[in-house]
Amino acid sequence: MLNPTEISIFKYLKEPMNISDLAELLSLHHSTVSKAISSLESEGFVLKEKKGNHVFVRRSDSLHAQSLVDILNEFPMLPLSKLLTPSSLHVISVLEPPRSITEVSEITGLDRSTVSAAISRLAKYGIVIKANSKFLLSSRQTLFENFVDNYFKYKTNMNLRAVSQNGMLIWQRGPEFLFKAENLNTDFGSDLKNKIHPTAISIFPNYGFDVITDMKYYFFRKKSPCEEEFFIHTILIDPYSPIYNSYALALVPRLGSKNLLKYAIYYDIEAHVRNLLEYIDKKEKRSDFVLPWNEYQELLESLV
Question: Start and end of every HTH arsR-type domain (predicted)?
Answer without folding.
Answer: 1-80
